[in-house]
């Protein structure tokens, strides 16, 4: 099977590889997939709590070239978006951008799931963070 | 050194130029039909076919009359298994085979199950080997055939064929072996191993594609088969169809070369294989050889690079032709059933690469491949969240994954 040039480019020069501090309250971490299924994506966003804008995004992916490309592309798209805008990224956008063949659509679905999981984690942390002073006040 | 490097010799092998030379006259001027009995065109074709029959028989310790030509090993496996099941239906309907067989055997058995046969699929241990006691216990008074491959096409593991042959003989059960990966690579002898039926293929031994053979024992016992291809009654009625004379000549020539060069070639291939294995195991942590190293073809290396997915690794070594047990590289999107049968877990199947070294590979090529694989695995591990977790001491088996 031939890969599209964009997949090859992301595979050869992956963008935003790495990890952010997952204990940072402004960092949301999403990890989706399973080793026995052959792909695991970890996607992280660092949000500016004042503006709600994603200032940094990082990924690490165990998976095929299309999975690596999908998550690399996702980090590119996430940077500069607000948390709510990030949630509008659809797997079909990734499919179109990377010209993924039908057998690789699940890679794009995984990337969308990773974005959602990361944002959800960030929101949960924010909610917990906001709740903490209240809890302290009660004790 | 020329790129790309071909290291997928279990899938197919290039045609040896000496084999092509032998075939060429039969693709051009000597075009006769081997079944034409009344002119010289037919006679020279028949002569060539009989010479090839002897070359093949000599390689495997058989008699020329025991060789039946087919279109390849898939057909040989079909003919052996379906032919026995049909011919011996009155004696019994039970077949014993192994979970790690090639699909040409497994799917043939599955088809027969739909037609009233009972099939036992023996498991293998972590090394890829069957348990002989388990085989003995599986035999019933309804068992008519044991079909166990000689050497596995993915992991190169060699089954205890002589012991299986002995058990089959003692119990009066026919023994078929798919020897596609073994014939021409290691010494195979149908008398020594008590083999009754054996499949082999031209294109795995530097011969042409589209030709293979089935060894069918004629003495002790005389094996009978119900033909699966009806027509002109060629090949003693077991396989009708005009003989593929150039292909058969090529198969014969390929067998003769293998027989002549085997003693030295086995040593050379094992040395190259071990050189590659040592390089990978010495320079990379968490690399696992799949299947027994002791009972193994000299040209096979199947390894899993933990925390790296196979297809992404293939992408990184795109000037090297190898294959992977990863789901992403298979048509079914399932990881290798052979590696799963070893019980190592699906994740290691996803991370596996099969190297099949061949007659035309050089030490320089092996060194290039070793270097390249080490650097790509290192790069992909830097990308891998699993590698990161492993380094942090996380037990991946205890993580709750969101399967999809």
Category from helices, strands and their pairing of chain A: alpha+beta
Quantity of strands of chain A, as a count: 3
Q: Under the CATH scheme, which architecture of the largest domain in chain B would be assigned? A: 3-Layer(aba) Sandwich
Number of helices of chain B: 12
Number of helices, where a helix is a run of at least 4 consecutive DSSP H or I residues of chain A: 5
Radius of gyration of chain B over all CA atoms, rounded: 22 Å
- Say what oligomer this is: heterodimer
Number of domains of chain A: 1
Task: Please characterize this protein's 3D structure.
The complex is a heterodimer of chains A (139) and B (404). Helices cover 49% and strands 20% of the residues of chain A. In chain A, helix 2 (65-78) packs across helix 5. Chain A is of the alpha+beta class and 139 residues long. Chain A has helices spanning 5-12, 65-78, 83-86, 91-98, 105-138, and strands at 27-34, 39-48, 53-62. Chain A has one domain (5-128): Sufe protein. Chain: A. Chain B is of the alpha/beta class and 404 residues long. Chain B has 2 domains: 5-10 and 262-386, Alpha-Beta Complex (Aspartate Aminotransferase, domain 1), CATH 3.90.1150.10; 17-257, Type I PLP-dependent aspartate aminotransferase-like (Major domain) (Aspartate Aminotransferase, domain 2, 3-Layer(aba) Sandwich). Chain B has a 7-stranded mixed β-sheet, with helices on both faces. The model of chain B has no long low-confidence stretch (mean pLDDT 96). The chains are: A alpha+beta (139), B alpha/beta (404). Chain A binds chain B through residues 3, 11, 14, 17, 19, 31-42, 60-65, 67-68, 103, 106, 109-110, 113, 117, and chain B through 307-309, 311-312, 315-316, 326-328, 333, 335, 345-347, 350, 382-388, 396, 401-404.
């Amino acid at each position: 099977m031939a890969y599209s040039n964009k997949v090859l480019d992301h595979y050869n020069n992956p963008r935003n590889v790495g990890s952010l501090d997952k204990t940072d309250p402004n960092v949301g971490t999403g990890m989706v997939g399973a080793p026995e299924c052959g792909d695991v994506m970890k996607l992280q966003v660092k949000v500016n709590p004042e503006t709600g804008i994603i200032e940094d995004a990082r990924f690490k992916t165990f998976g095929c070239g299309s999975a690596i490309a999908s998550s690399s592309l996702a980090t590119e798209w996430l940077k500069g978006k607000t948390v709510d805008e990030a949630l509008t990224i659809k797997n079909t956008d990734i499919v179109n951008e990377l010209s993924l063949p039908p057998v690789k659509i699940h890679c794009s679905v995984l990337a969308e799931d990773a974005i959602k999981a990361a944002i959800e984690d960030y929101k949960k942390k924010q909610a917990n963070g906001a709740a903490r002073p209240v809890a302290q006040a009660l004790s | 050194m020329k790129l790309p490097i071909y290291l997928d010799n279990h899938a197919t092998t290039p045609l040896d130029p000496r084999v092509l030379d032998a075939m060429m006259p039969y693709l051009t001027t000597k075009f006769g039909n081997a079944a034409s009995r009344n002119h010289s065109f037919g006679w020279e074709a028949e002569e060539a076919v009989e010479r090839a029959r002897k070359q093949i028989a000599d390689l495997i310790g058989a008699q020329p009359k025991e060789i039946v030509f087919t279109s390849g090993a898939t057909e040989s496996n079909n003919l052996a298994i379906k032919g026995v099941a049909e011919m011996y239906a009155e004696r019994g309907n039970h077949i014993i085979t192994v979970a790690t067989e090639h699909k040409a055997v497994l799917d043939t058995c599955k088809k027969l199950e739909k037609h009233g046969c009972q099939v036992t699929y023996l498991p293998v241990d972590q090394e890829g080997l069957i348990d002989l006691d388990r085989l003995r216990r599986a035999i019933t008074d309804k068992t008519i055939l044991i079909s166990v491959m000689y050497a596995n096409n993915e992991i190169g593991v060699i089954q205890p064929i002589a012991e299986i042959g002995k058990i089959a003989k003692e119990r009066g059960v026919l023994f078929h072996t798919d020897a596609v990966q073994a014939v021409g690579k290691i010494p195979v002898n149908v008398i020594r191993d008590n083999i009754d039926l054996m499949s082999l293929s031209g294109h795995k031994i530097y011969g042409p594609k589209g030709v293979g053979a089935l060894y069918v024992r004629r003495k002790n016992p005389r094996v009978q088969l119900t033909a699966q291809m009806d027509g002109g009654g060629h090949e003693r009625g077991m396989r009708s169809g005009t003989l593929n004379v150039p292909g058969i000549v090529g198969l014969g020539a390929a067998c003769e070369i293998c027989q002549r060069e085997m003693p030295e070639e086995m040593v050379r291939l094992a040395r190259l294989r071990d050189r590659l294995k040592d390089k990978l195991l010495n320079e990379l942590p968490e690399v696992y050889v799949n299947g027994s190293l002791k009972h193994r073809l000299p040209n096979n290396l199947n390894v899993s690079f933990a925390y790296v997915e196979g297809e992404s690794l293939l992408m990184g070594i795109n000037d090297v032709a190898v294959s992977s047990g990863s789901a992403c590289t298979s048509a079914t999107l399932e990881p290798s059933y052979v590696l799963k049968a070893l019980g190592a877990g699906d994740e290691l199947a996803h991370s596996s690469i099969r190297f099949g070294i061949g007659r035309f590979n050089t030490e320089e090529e092996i060194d290039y491949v070793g270097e390249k694989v080490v650097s790509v695995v290192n790069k992909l591990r830097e990308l891998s969240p699993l590698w990161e977790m492993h380094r942090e001491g996380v037990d991946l088996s205890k993580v709750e994954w969101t399967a999809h």
